[in-house]
Design goal:
The chain is α/β, with parallel strands linked by helices and 577 residues long. The protein has 23 helices and 21 strands. α4 links the parallel β4 and β5. The chain is globular. It binds ligand DPX and magnesium ion. The site of magnesium ion (MG) has 8 residues, from α18.
Length: 577
């Protein structure tokens, strides 16, 4: 079989496990899209705009391990690059492919449409270089295979986005055939000597401390070390907490799981037990201003091991070029058969006597009980009602996508059954991310129940992608929290800019349906209405169901209020003299 640059790229996509790629058409990429369409193993999925296209691919990568988005030059790509920045921040290998000017125009002095109006078109590549781990420009078919392979291989190894631009007249040019997929998929092994030294150092660190605790961070998944972390927890027997961004990256039904560690927004007694611990094994953790609650809850110093995807640091040592998974397996192996280091677990059971095994926090249970009593009455809907319903519909095959806003804290409070997953975008924190990301996730994981919790303000950024859920008949359940504005910002710093124009959200879905769609838009203002709407959503399989949940502007979680106060304090620090 003969290949072109475009069919080569499509074959590489299929080989790395992409069953879909996301696209928005434009004249610089039309020939490329034709070439990609020829590969029946990697379906083309369309988005309403390029920002959403990037976020859809980002969501797909969460479900599927990697993703691709194909856009046109500048007017398309510069929008998509925002989502690519997000994929970098969130450690997701998303390949952004941009159609580009004809190879004869490069260096010709010609001014082209969709550019900034100067004859130098290299600015897009230069921007992409800052936001990806590998960025290439293809202006000859001969160089295409190695440039494409370099970009894809680097993205998969580093779990970061990559960028490929292809001159519009080169996409259909003949090129060499792709070789075996292993050239892209097989990472180089850990450096053996460094790995042995790191296993020894971490094991003796653990043996020197009486009261270790394990903290799971959001880079654990990128490191492919979720199973290895369970093995380490079993070997140590100590408490395990997840950072907020890593919820569901450690099984919540594991006997040593105690909840979320997030300063004052932590699950009950988790902060106390981490303060009591004499050492922390931080696995793939990202400590930023939000996750440390304004730098107030930040495990650091000589009693902390920071074990990252490829480098582990402790007590004045750095062990580089080792895979986290090898380190954790090695330490677990070393500790096998030795006495458990379970003091934190014993103490946690004492201070949290009702819960040797993790369960919903007490607050959630109280809220759920009161909610169940309320559904028969026509009482005004509350935030607690919404959260209780979210908890009720979780199954082992549910994934909850939680948008920035109070949705974070609502989703955080849920107790996940084994297998249930949560997706947050906490490092990038682009409001509106969740709508296209839920679309992309649902495309990538058709056998799971995708549930989206999103605020009204966030929804208004990227609402169009609900139309693509309708187009592909994806039964995504959307809880849209209409609290009349940017409540999280209200808690951090209020002003008139936190008020938004209200929409008739249920009617928006009807608008997207036009004549051929089967999305449902429902509105709940009482507990009883929400109960009914959730029943309808669960039964509806022909498209998404959006439930607009109307609650008062100041009805938010206690965690949001206290976390918001800490973050506001950190923001308000005066400039250093
Ligand atoms: C902003 C945020 O309605 O959620 O629960 O009411 O807060 P809550 P909403 O979706 O409002 C979101 C709003 C405005 N953040 O409270 S978190 C600033 C911001 C951002 N991303 C982008 N622009 C502004 N995070 C793209
Ligand atoms: Mg809101």
């Amino acid at each position: 079989m003969s290949y072109t640059v475009g069919t080569y790229l499509a074959e590489r996509f299929a080989q790395i496990g992409l069953k879909h790629h996301f696209a928005v058409a434009g004249d610089y990429n039309l020939v490329l899209l034709d070439q990609l369409l020829m590969n029946k193993s990697c379906e083309q999925v369309y988005c309403c705009n390029e920002l959403n296209c990037g976020f859809s691919a980002e969501g797909y990568a969460r479900a599927n391990g990697a993703a691709a988005a194909v856009v046109t030059f500048s007017v398309g790509a510069l929008s998509a690059l925002n989502a690519i920045g997000g994929a970098y921040a969130e450690n997701l290998p998303v390949i952004l492919v941009s159609g580009a000017p004809n190879s004869n125009d490069h260096g010709s002095g010609h001014i082209l449409h969709h550019t900034i109006g100067t004859p130098d078109y290299s600015y897009q590549l230069q921007i992409a270089e800052k936001l990806t781990c590998a960025a290439v420009s293809i202006i000859s078919a001969e160089d295409a295979p190695e440039k494409i392979d370099y970009a894809i291989r680097t993205a998969l190894r580093e779990k970061k986005p990559a960028y490929i631009e292809i001159a519009c007249n080169v996409s259909a040019q003949p090129c060499a055939a792709p070789g075996p997929a292993s050239a892209l998929l097989t990472p180089p092994p850990s450096d053996h000597a460094t790995l042995q030294a790191a296993i020894k150092a971490v094991s003796s660190f653990v043996e020197k401390h009486e009261k270790p605790a394990i903290l799971i961070g959001s880079k654990l998944r990128a490191a492919g070390a979720e199973q290895a972390a369970v093995k380490l927890a079993d070997a140590l027997g100590c408490v395990v907490a997840t950072m907020a961004a890593a919820k569901s990256f450690f099984p919540e039904d594991h006997p040593n799981y105690v909840g979320t560690y997030w300063g004052s927004a932590s699950s009950p007694n988790v902060s106390e037990i981490f303060n009591w611990a004499d050492s922390v094994l931080a696995l793939g953790c990202v400590f930023n201003d939000y996750s440390t609650e304004g730098w107030t809850a930040w495990p650091k110093g000589s009693n902390v091991v920071n074990a990252d995807k490829e480098v582990t640091k402790l007590d004045g040592h750095a062990f580089d070029n080792i895979h986290l998974v090898d380190l954790l397996n090695g330490v677990a192996e070393h500790l096998k058969g030795k006495p458990k280091r379970d003091a934190t677990m014993v103490e946690f059971r004492r201070i949290h006597p009702e819960s040797a095994t993790p369960k919903e926090d007490d607050q959630s249970i109280k809220e759920r009980k009161s909610q169940i009593a309320r559904t028969s009455a026509d009482t005004k809907l509350t935030r607690a009602d919404i959260q209780a319903h979210l908890q009720k519909i979780l199954t082992p095959t549910t994934t909850v996508i939680g948008e920035t806003g109070d949705s974070w804290f609502n989703v955080m409070r849920t107790k996940l059954p084994h297998g249930a997953r949560v997706e947050f975008e906490m490092q990038w924190g682009h409001i509106g991310w969740s709508v296209p990301a839920a679309f992309g996730y649902a495309v990538g994981a058709p056998d799971r129940r995708t549930v989206l919790m999103v605020g009204d303000g966030s929804f208004q950024l990227t609402a169009q992608e609900v139309a693509q859920m309708i187009r592909r008949k994806l039964p995504v359940i959307i809880f849209l929290i209409n609290n009349a504005g940017y409540t999280i910002e209200v808690e951090i710093h209020d002003g008139p800019y936190n008020n938004i124009k209200n929409w008739d959200y249920a009617a928006v879905v009807e608008g997207f349906n036009a004549k051929d769609g089967h999305g449902k838009g429902l509105r709940a203002t009482t507990a009883a209405e929400l109960e009914k709407a959730v029943e309808t959503a669960l039964a509806h399989k022909e498209g998404p169901t959006l439930i607009e949940c109307v609650i008062p502007r100041d009805d938010c979680t206690g965690e949001l209020i206290s976390w918001g106060r800490h973050v506001a304090t950190a923001n308000a620090r005066p400039p250093a003299k």
